[in-house]
User: What shape does this take?
Amino acid sequence: MKQAYQQKPWRRQMKWVSRLLLIAFFVALGSAIYLGLAGEVTAVSQQLRDLNRAKNDLQERIASHESELARLCTARAIQPKLEALGYEHYSYEDVVYVGVAGYEPLRPVQLAPPASERNLTQPILRSSYTQSLWDWLTGHASSISQLGGFQ
Assistant: This one.
């Protein structure tokens, strides 16, 4: 069927302009979303870098404090303080040990059960989890036919 009238040139131009504007709008919308997400990712990655830097600084401070504590707890560092408090140095020949009746020494802590080589008597997985669908169907079909389900 032929069209009875011809469209005006400005209407055709308006269609093309509106289509181009619509395409430009969606491209601008996509670009805005992309730039917004990229900005957020950049900000989060910067925060992550700052947190990692702070974590490393804290770990270095902890290591420094631990080494300082170890230095302060050495025998050479503690000995003058102990002598100032009135403690004296004794050798093992000078010490007398006294046995206390009824005292039971602490037993060593057992954190895990002892290792043993015991065989499992039953499988870890049930057979219904390891059998194929065909085996399951034939097993159930045979049990139903034995009960008189299929006649």
Remarks:
- DSSP finds four helices and no strands in the chain.
- The mean pLDDT is 84.
